[in-house]
Amino acid sequence: MNITVFCSANLLDAKYTAPAAEFARLLGEAGHTLVWGGSHAGLMGQLADGVKEAGGRLVGVSVEFLRHKSYEGADELVTTPDLAVRKAELLARGDALVVLVGGLGTLDEVTEVLELKKHGHHDKPVVLLDTEGFYQGLRLQLERMDAEGFLPRPLAELVAFAQTPAEALAHLTADRI
Q1: What is the pLDDT of residues 23-64, one digit of tens each?
Q2: How far apart are CA 62 and CA 81, in angstroms?
Q3: Which domain holds residue 134?
Q4: 81: helix, strand or coil
Q5: Of the chain's two ends, which shows fewer C-beta atoms within 10 Å, N or C?
Q6: 3-state secondary structure 107-154
Q7: CA dist., res. 24 & res. 39, Å (int)
Q8: Number of domains in the chain
Q9: What CATH number should be reported for the domain holding residue 23?
Q10: In this predicted model, what pLDDT tens digit does every residue of 103-150 receive, in sequence order?
């Protein structure tokens, strides 16, 4: 399976990097392909290193203005002209999507993916790995949107929340059965 992962390109505390490293190991050991932002920086680079060390394949999708941060060990590296094309490419290349901790770029990516899914433009599984309760605020907001009628599909059809890397991967394989 090609698994697109959205996450931070910043160096982060071990409370965030350890679960990401575990997810990378599980992904690689299961023979999956990581599709990610193509960067060697921060959590993105650590994720790619972990997948590669565990035997997984790497497909990076970078953007022209960040080309200097591209991961040199990728099996395939695509460079797009802008962030909009990059997001479309990341979505198109993944069979499923996992969101690890991240900043505004990650939030932008996950909200666009959920908006497209809401309107039926894809039906790929989307899982947020809620490390250290990082996405509790987003989850609360999405639950309110669901309860108050802002979502045309039930929230459970749009996204799953996982507490552990193994649970995140299990959501993806369960959705494919």
Answers
A1: 999 999 999 999 999 999 999 999 999 999 999 999 999 999
A2: 9
A3: 2-175
A4: coil
A5: C
A6: HHHHHHHHHHHHCCCCCCCEEEECHHHCCHHHHHHHHHHHHCCCCCCC
A7: 15
A8: 1
A9: 3.40.50.450
A10: 999 999 999 999 999 999 999 999 999 999 999 999 999 999 999 999
